[in-house]
Amino acid sequence: MRTQRQVVDYSLQRRAVLRDVRDGRISALEVCDASPYLKNAATFHGEPTDERCPICRRDNVTLVHYVYGDELKQSAGQAHKAAELSVLAMTLRECQVFVVEVCRSCSWNHLIERYLLGRDALGDDEPPMQWKTGSDSHVREGRR
Length: 144
Ligand SMILES: [Zn+2]
Description:
With about 140 residues, the protein is an alpha+beta fold. The protein is about 35% helix and about 30% strand. Strands 1, 2, 3, 4, 5 and 6 form a six-stranded antiparallel sheet that branches.
């Protein structure tokens, strides 16, 4: 999505947790602790993936997008479908999205990434694409 920014990737932490489980340093029970609320969100708002659960390998993991932001008022912290995110990105100035991976079989869950979304990204701090890629961009930038 074009307006995604300040993306924080948690795949290293995820890999470290999975390694600890594999090596027996932490038990699978400790990491398979998705709340009923989170599993519900995965069922009703989750985005299915082709990726097998790294713990039980019985089911594919589902991605849940939680959206936070002052402009959301009482709906802050709710799960949203991926399709709804593009609408939020165009209507809100700024919101924070947390992407959580959930297995509905064994309750494995882990934060995958978080990022900011919203119209603020279309503002002055980031020049439009044609400024970066146009063959005469140096001329235009010189005039700025
Ligand atoms: Zn699982």
